[in-house]
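Troubleshooting log. The previous structure file for this entry was overwritten by mistake, so regenerating from the original sequence record. Sequence copied from the archived sheet and checked twice against the printout by T.R.
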Amino acid sequence: MRAERFDVRVTAWHGFAALAASAALGLASLTATAFASPGVSVTTSPSVGHSILVDDRGMTLYRYTEDQTGTSVCYAGCAVAWPPVIVDTVPAVDNVVVAQGLGTTGRTDGTTQLTYLGQPLYYYVGDTKPGDITGDASDGVWYVVDAPAA
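Regenerated output below.
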């Protein structure tokens, strides 16, 4: 009987370890995506009816209304669902008006997050392909980033 309990515990531990490894791998792939230094461009979104900011892959950029100007408050589970746009430097951008609004802010983990008009920028894990805007108006605090008028 005692050996059976041990086997169950070992089996449960192996199952937990496999689950943890799978989660870590998934988080690493999100982190790798979020840590790439993306370009920024403007695209017209039929879903919202105006131009928005996207990265160089066409993935939608978001802002979080709970952030203080220039300071992100999105960490831990929030940053898993809404990965910050991490950069080494402000990317070169063809659109002069957009370029003037870009900047960076430091995060508590030592990384540098891209900002637009002082607002930290994010991706949404629910957006799986270029052009998706599934995070817009999420919880009444997450919104696509409106592009400046041309």
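The first strand starts at residue 40 and ends at 45. Archived copy saved in two places this time.
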